[in-house]
Amino acid sequence: MERREEIRFGLWVLLVPFVLLVVGEIGAHKFYSAKRPTGFDWAALEIATRVPGTDIPYRFQPGASYEHLAFDDLGLRSPGLRTPKPDETIRLAVVSNSTLFNAVLPEEKTFIGLLTQELARRHPECSFDYANFSGPAYTLEFLAQEWPTLRDQVDPDVTIILAGSPYEAIPDPDGRRSGSGAAAAAPPHVWEAPHLRRFVEAVLRRLSLARAITMAREDTSSFKREFTQNISDMQGDLASLVPEGRAILIGDRAQVRDADSTALAALTRELRYKRNIKRPESALELTETTIGAMAETARSNGWSFVDAMAQIPADPEHFRDAEHLTGKGTADLMELVLPEVEAILPECRSTEGS
Predict the structure, then answer these.
(1) 46 found inside a domain
(2) In total, how many domains does the chain have?
(3) Cβ distance 115 to 105 under 8 Å?
């Protein structure tokens, strides 16, 4: 009898911490869910618009819609797009990931919506429209596979590219080549509290003796070889997007830019976490190398290059998370790219100031 009581007591001793752990995890998840900003429901977008049977990244179903988003007959976020292109129309095309998809913004507030409106205001003698080929988790590799066929149908006069980010160049710890931007995926499990999980992982990394005494991942020869190969592959993919014609390439650096040590640690935190990079300085160096390679690709193809993201303040007014712009940030990006677009417009030049 006494032995049975001891066993029962032991089971309770084991059970109580487990119950407290589960309750704490649920509470942390609810706290996280209540405190985080209301974001865009990527999973619901996928359910409503994804072409059946396709993998992520996925194309949108022609004619599909979700909330304020509508897709044309080509499955692009391009309302009123006519094919073939009318002779009198100057057509802009955006080729990008979720950064220029601008999921949370209404059509007229998107990057390409604002740009087209401003060009129409400055050049009333011209007719403009646009094609927006962008979406969640659209990697440069995916864009290079899908855009050439669409390009022939869209027939753009000017192509604006924001793709080829450090997230794609830096080798993925899991061996995948994945891009920046939001992936359309199922919402977090009820037990998952991302902030708590990241905090625990960060503590374990800092307390890990192995991590402290071993070489940083970014210093290994295998990492450097893979990074160099990824850069080369990305340059080839970029060049294939616009083999000939007018194009502008925007450096896709998100918030990462040179700063003091404290700010640099904050600006590179997301990139270091997702790519398991040990030092903030390494994350910055890898980013600058990637941006430099993208600029070199633009020059060699006769395109314009603008490192516009570096000129947008890395604060909550301009970035809604580590990678995506707010409405204010999107408007600022448009203003920075506008002169480059005007400089290469076909048969349409501004007369303002003349």
Answers:
(1) no
(2) 2
(3) no
